[in-house]
Predict the 3D structure of the following.
Amino acid sequence: MKKVIYIAGLGHSGSTILDMALGCHKKIVGLGEIYAVFNKENTSALFEKSTCSCGKKGKDCDFWKSLKEFSGSDKSTEDKYRKLINIFTKKYGDEMILLDSSKNSYPYLQFLNKEYDLRIIYLTRDIRSWIYSRFTRTKIPMFFLALRWFLENKKLLYVLRKYGVKMMTVGYEELSLYPEFILKKISRFINIDFNDIMLHPNNTNSHIINGNISRVDKEKKTGFFYDFRWMTSGRLARITSIIAIFNKMNKRLVYSNISETTKGEFHIFGKQKKEKLLKEHNE
């Protein structure tokens, strides 16, 4: 059964960089936000103006150029997806894994889960970092953004669990600060061998024509970088005690892979590693 990886979660949570990192693996090709490409209202802009992560315009991209007409048709999303998978399989072979980073809990996930081996990576950005990022762009009051983070994540998770999909949670902070550790865990979930080329997203085989502009940012594509600016925000600091009501969900979604239950064995700060080094070096 063909394997499909789907990155779910809120927008502006790092799905593009994860798409490119996973797309470095010889068995994976990422296609970005496929749902947006299937929206016929986006066809002209995406194929004529948007630059794919491969460096070419959509209309010239080795993968997408043959799908422009079909993408803009009135066919159902399921029909378009089947066509996409057929073209993908003919180009890359049966064993190649398709990666979709559309993020939302779209109904077509039910059909993918039924007809393919669907694996979902639920990616979440720390509520404080996400609030700061969205506030600097939208100026929406921070508390309303916090409420949106909570409610939208809760809704997405409810729907995905209702679909009965295979899912693992990953925090953007975990990925950014400990990329090798997290990508190894993701690789086990997908059932592929980890390759350290995945630590360098600029080596990606992904074809992303809709997604964060980092897909064509040569500097950002060289590795994983974390934006710490939210830590210096006085405005955010003033509402920290208020948004603390969402801390439980934040910890569960963003830091589940380095949670309290595994800190003793954590690969950098763990007690086991410290004791081993002390014993080896006679301190």
